[in-house]
């Protein structure tokens, strides 16, 4: 799986950060998913290799503008770019009605099949080998997390044993890898004898705005990565008050540590936190606070940073975009 951040700022954009959007790409092929679509997301896409024509589905976590105001422009541009493939938009109540009103009053023409799926009462969806589960969160409006999990995991071949038993490389290996028993001469060979133990499916949990990380405890079981907001440090969160509906860095770090999550990616930073470490307050302050309780691999997201989650569940930075920061 590959992740690329298209926007990492909370509320409003800054010179270095656009508002929320994240691309999740499957391991094979060019299909990808978009989680949130803040204003300007289609402009951000122009600086990536992602194609709007291979976008498989859009997931909106909640109706606040910094997470959805770019949606209608992106859908319109997909039409102008000649998209023909169907597209699903999974979103809370209000998004479909907003689209319908805009289409009515601006003569927005969408030539491809577009389906809105209501997230509010939807437990799971399946896209090929990817199952998406939905978890309600705590925010000022209904907000959701989307968990992306592989459904089928190929068991690797025990090549040493195949060679030792004289099974020649070729079509038989392919059949065994598919779990099919094969016949060699008068002998039937059980595929299970030559398949190593399967790894855990890769699972990524991507949360919308949420002031209660503990709501994700069940969703984070067997997950290798949590992407969660860390809008503030604790001191600022206490000044802002409880009504805002956002998490602070130490709160998310402690939760991730309790869950045993090996990887944590923090995003959705308040514009008051500067990119430069020498300026206060800095995004580095968010990382430092999270590290006080979290001992796993911690990253602070930056626009255009691209990550890979390996089959073994290891998170690796492929490209830092305009400067992704590791907090480790």
Rg from Cα: 22 Å
What is the CATH level 1 assignment of the largest domain?
A: Alpha Beta
Number of strands: 18
Number of helices: 9
Structure class = alpha/beta
- CATH superfamily of the largest domain, called what? Ribonuclease Z/Hydroxyacylglutathione hydrolase-like
Strands side by side in the biggest sheet: 6-5-4-3-2-1-16-17
Task: Tell me the layout of helices and strands.
Layout: E1 2-7, E2 21-25, E3 32-37, H1 41-45, E4 55-59, H2 65-68, H3 71-80, E5 87-91, H4 95-106, E6 114-118, E7 124-127, E8 130-136, E9 144-150, H5 159-164, H6 171-177, E10 182-184, E11 187-189, E12 203-207, E13 225-229, H7 234-240, H8 249-259, E14 263-267, H9 283-291, E15 297-300, E16 306-309, E17 315-319, E18 325-326
Parallel strand pairs: 3-4, 4-5, 5-6, 12-13, 13-14, 14-15
Antiparallel strand pairs: 1-2, 1-16, 2-3, 7-8, 8-9, 9-12, 10-11, 15-18, 16-17
Describe the protein.
It is a single chain. The strands form three sheets. An eight-stranded mixed β-sheet has the order 6-5-4-3-2-1-16-17. It contains nine helices and 18 strands. The protein is globular, with a radius of gyration of 22 Å. The protein folds into two domains: 278 residues, Metallo-beta-lactamase, Chain A (4-Layer Sandwich), CATH 3.60.15; 36 residues, no CATH class. With 328 residues, the chain is α/β, with parallel strands linked by helices.
């Amino acid at each position: 799986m590959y992740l690329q951040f298209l926007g990492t700022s909370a509320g409003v954009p800054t010179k270095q950060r656009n508002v929320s959007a994240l691309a999740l790409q499957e391991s094979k092929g060019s299909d990808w998913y978009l989680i949130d679509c803040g204003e300007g997301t289609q402009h951000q896409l122009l600086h990536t290799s992602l194609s709007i024509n291979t976008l498989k589905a859009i997931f909106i976590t909640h109706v606040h503008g910094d997470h959805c105001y770019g949606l209608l422009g992106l859908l319109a541009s997909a039409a102008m770019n000649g998209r023909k493939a169907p597209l699903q938009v999974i979103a809370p109540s209000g998004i479909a009605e907003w689209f319908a009103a805009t289409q009515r009053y601006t003569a927005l023409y969408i030539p491809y099949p577009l389906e809105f799926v209501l997230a509010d009462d939807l437990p799971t969806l399946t896209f090929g080998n990817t199952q998406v589960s939905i978890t309600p969160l705590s925010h000022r409006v209904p907000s959701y997390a989307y968990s992306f999990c592989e459904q089928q995991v190929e068991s690797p071949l025990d090549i040493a044993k195949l060679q030792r038993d004289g099974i020649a490389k070729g079509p038989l290996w392919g059949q065994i890898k598919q779990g099919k028993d094969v016949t060699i001469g008068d002998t039937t060979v059980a595929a299970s004898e030559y398949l190593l133990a399967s790894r855990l499916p890769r699972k990524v949990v991507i949360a919308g705005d949420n002031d209660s990380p503990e709501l994700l405890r069940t969703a984070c079981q067997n997950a290798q990565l949590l992407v969660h907001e860390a809008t503030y440090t604790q001191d600022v969160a206490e000044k802002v008050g409880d009504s805002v509906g956002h998490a602070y860095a130490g709160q998310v770090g402690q939760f991730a540590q309790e869950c045993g999550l090996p990887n944590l990616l923090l995003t959705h930073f308040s514009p008051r936190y500067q990119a430069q470490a020498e300026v206060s307050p800095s995004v580095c302050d968010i990382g430092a606070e999270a590290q006080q309780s979290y001992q796993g691999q911690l990253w602070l997201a930056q626009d255009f940073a691209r990550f890979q989650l390996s089959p073994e569940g290891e998170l690796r930075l492929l490209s830092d975009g305009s400067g992704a920061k590791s907090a480790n």
